[in-house]
Design goal:
63 residues, alpha+beta, two-stranded antiparallel sheet, 1 helix, 2 strands, 13% helix, GroES-like_sf
Length: 63
């Protein structure tokens, strides 16, 4: 069994890096490699603005 390291979502505030079996595509399926992920920044942007509308909420950058 060949394994890979994967980021596994277990639930809210529970994301882990685990060794898992390498996935294999079946008929009509594909396996894709994710090389970059980000976290959507609306909540941190709101906290930084402290009551002001963020650029994301007002249709600015990233809208």
């Amino acid at each position: 069994m060949e394994t890979i390291r994967a980021t596994v979502f277990q639930g809210i505030n529970n994301i882990r890096v685990e060794e898992v079996e390498r996935p294999h595509a079946g008929v009509g399926e594909v396996v894709i490699r994710i090389t970059l992920t980000t976290i959507y920044g609306v909540i941190p942007a709101r906290e930084r603005c402290r009551g002001k509308a963020s650029l994301l909420e007002s249709g600015g950058v990233g809208a």
